[in-house]
Amino acid sequence: MRLLVTLPLLLATTAFAQDVHVRVDPHGPGSVNSTTDYTTIQQALDHAPDTANGRVIISIVPGVYHERVVVTRNRPHVTLLGLGKDPSEVVITASQNHDSAGGTFNSATVEVDGDEFEADNVTFENAAGNTGQAVAIAVRSDRAVFKHCRFLADQDTLFADFGRQYYVDSYIRGGVDFIFGNATAVFDHDTIEEIRLGYLTAQSRTSPVQTTGYVITNSRVISSIDPSTKTPQRSGFFLGRPWRLYSRVIFMNTELPADLDPQGWSVWNKSDAYPPQAFYAEFHNTGPGADTSHRAPWSHQLTAAEAKTYEPANFLRGTDHWNPLAAAAKLP
After folding, report:
1. Domain boundaries, position 296
2. How far apart are CA 235 and CA 22, in angstroms?
């Protein structure tokens, strides 16, 4: 009898699961009273109709959106879809930094707390420049997917801090610690640009049993470091330094530039315990920076069998068997 009651309820719930489509156009007719058209991204997030089990898909017309955007915890299943021919045509930008915002974590142009967030063809920018910590986007979303996106800032560009996150076919630019936090994140077929003599990652795993860490795979790291800033003591950037004790970062099948310091990896401060307990590893990288003969002796070179653990589908699977590649393939 219980089965006969439960099954119709399940079917009814599934039948009414549907997506809500809304549009953002700063020059359009939208208002807070609309259910389909809005003039700002935050307005759409605040006022779009709720949907049971579906997604809220926010289509954004080309333009530069000078606003701070917050996707709250009670707004899961949001998709931001840029309608331009490439991500440079839909830009969400602000310019708060640590000092002006009252702290690093308040400086983010975009804050994502709702689970299963998606973005496609959008640029996330913090335009504060070389003024200290200034976050373009803070992501605390499980099963988050970013495809064909750009992330632009200097220090602390991308705060990938919580949940499983997949960044594919995207571009990330920064100078110091510009991919940081404690998410379980994979960066796949991305271009990552280092603009200063800084540190690319600052991952913050706090326990050796945590499943968190960053994997950069099938990607390309490029450098636009000004040669005049180099000194005999410091002539290259580092792939990462441990923001917390058990920091974990892996670079695989990725092209590394000549401006990478031959040691590859750094401690956080010179006074820190040596060797650090961070797990920093590489596998099958290419390019002029891929020579491992002078790497920090406490870093690792993976075998092919070990590297399989860090392939996107394996590293992000979790107990619910999430498939990030399939999720990304559904986006345009």
Report:
1. 179-306
2. 49
